[in-house]
Amino acid sequence: MRRELEIPRWPQPASVAVSLTFDVDAESGFLSEGAEYAARLTTLSEAAFGPARGVGRILDLLSELALPATFYVPGDTAERHTATVEQIVAAGHEVGHHGHLHLRSDRISADQQREEIERGFAALQESVGVRPRGYRSPSWELTPETFALLGEFGFDYDSSLMGDDRPYLEEREDRTILELPVHWSLDDWTHFWWGIDEGGRLATPSSVLEVWLAEFESALADRRHVTYTMHPEIIGRGHRIAMLRRFLETIRDRANIWFASHGEICDYLRKP
Ligand code: ZN
Fold it and tell me: Is the pLDDT of residue 107 over 90?
C-alpha cells in the first residue's frame, strides 16, 4: 500500500531532484539463470564489459561533471570484480544492495530470498567493506517475503516499486519503508537491450534521450524527485555514454537541480 509523503522543498536553489543509479549486474544475472550460461562465453563477455569498460566511463563522466550516484551491486559482482567496485567506493559513490546472484525474488523460496540478502551483505562487506543502507530487488520484482526482510535487516529505503513517480512510503502489515520508485521507461535496459535468444530493441540514443528529457521536464514542473536507472554494460557503450553526457549537460543547463544519491534523498526526507 502506498502512503503519500510530504515532500519538502529541495535544498535551495534546486527546484528538482535527480538521482542517477547504476545496477552493476555483470555476469550475476546470467549465471543465476542456469548452468548452461557458464559455457556461453560471448554472453558472459558482454555482461563483463560492464565492469571492464562501462564502469570506468561512467566514473569518468560523473567525476568530470561532479555528480554523485548510487550503484546497486550484487554480492557476486563485488566478489568477481572487486577492484572495479573498489573504484566506485573510492570515488565516493553510494553502494546499494542488489541481491547476491541477482535471483528474482518471485522465482525463489522464502529461504533463498533470505540467503540472497545475507550473502549480498556478506560479499559487499568482505570485498569492499561496505554495509548498504538501501535495497533494489533484482529485476525490480519484490515479494511480500523480501519486503519483510527489508524491515528485519534494517534497510533505510527501497528502490524497486513503481507505485508513484515521487518518493512515498510503502506499507505492508506492520512494516513501512521509504520507497524511491523506478520505472521501465527510465531504465536503459528496456530501451537498448538486445539478446540472441529473445531479441530486443536496440533503440537509437536520440529516442531514449527524448523520453528521459520529457520525464525530466515533468519532474521539473512538479518540483519532484526522479530516478534514472542504468547498467554499465548497456549505457557504458561508446555511443550511449555520449547520450548520457548530452542528457546530463542538457538538464544541468535547464534548471537548478539537486543531484543526489538515494542515501542523500533518504536522509533529506527523514530529517525533522
Ligand atoms: Zn539488476
Answer: yes
Res 272: pLDDT: 65
**Would you say residue 166 has pLDDT above 90?**
yes
Domains in the chain: boundaries: 2-270
What's the pLDDT at 37?
87
Dist. CA 98 → ligand 1 center (Å) = 7
Residue 24 Cα to ligand 1 midpoint, Å, equals 7
Distance (Å) from CA 224 to ligand 1 centroid: 25
Distance from the CA of 12 to the center of ligand 1, in angstroms?
A: 33
Task: Report the C-alpha gap between 56 and 26 in whole angstroms.
Answer: 14
Q: Which CATH class is domain 2-270?
A: alpha beta
180, pLDDT greater than 90: yes
pTM of the model: 0.97
Instruction: Compute the distance from residue 169 Cα to the ligand 1 centre, in Å.
Output: 22
Q: What is the mean pLDDT of residues 144-159?
A: 97
Distance, CA of 259 to CA of 267 (rounded, Å)? 14
Query: What is the reported pLDDT for 29?
Result: 87
